[in-house]
Amino acid sequence: MEAQRIKMTPALYVVATPLGNLGDITLRALEVLRGADLIACEDTRHTRRLLEHYDIRATLFAVHEHNEAAAAEKLLAFLSEGKCVALVSDAGTPGVSDPGARAVAALSSAGYPVIPLPGPNAAIAALSASGINDPHFLFYGFLPTRPAARRLAIERVKSVAAALVFYEAPHRIAETLADLAELLEPQRELVIARELTKLFEQIARMPLAEGPAWLAADDNRRRGEFVLIISAPPPGEDLPPEALSTLKLLLSELPLKQAVRLAAKISGAPRNALYQRALAWQDEQL
Ligand code: SAM
What we know:
binds S-adenosylmethionine
């Protein structure tokens, strides 16, 4: 017997769906998927499997990278008729390294309510089981696919005082991990989270320098979908004590950026490392 449909406010409902394990769906997500007049999804066959599992019959409409602008127009027309639309992606949270943001922007700027239904997300799932204890993280998503652009992107985030979170596909995991291990500090901690919530789920922790060898040691380790987490850079670890004492003195008199610039000039220590150290001290005082 089909479960009863709830009465819903006309809106765009942004619904997170499972990463793999079909049990990872909220009761509210099921209610909304059941009650929506239309479900906008990336791949209708993929979403159909999820809906069949929960015995939900629905009208599906494909919204993907290549038709998102045109699809937003159709969704606008639906909402203007007072209908409820649910938006899902193939896995996890729509709009997070997935289509959805353009449709959300178009509908919300046209004045329609957009209601998020939180749930699975690969980055958050990986972080929650990573054991990495940094207070901040930077969610980067996918690095560029071209090697030069990828290396530049890694250089740009190298000094950010936060754990770094990347998404990667199996056919690029080896080259991406090789670049990360070469360009970032080797002692940073690496967590490789693979196939989360699925049969071959694996979460491995190691110093970053050991990542490429770990991956190469077994073909199975390069299969599936990946989240890579790298702990924050060691704050100012290599700075000489004179540079640190100069920085401390200047920080007691000057704004942070000015103090860092002068400390770098006086001590010859790298400005970025001094900057990270100053930020870490500032955080400790908060
Ligand atoms: N919107 C999704 C989310 O909320 O996490 C992400 C979609 S993005 C197109 C797909 C990428 O997410 C994969 O290449 C992988 O990096 C990561 N991912 C998705 N499912 C995963 C899983 N079960 N285990 C590990 N990583 C996963």
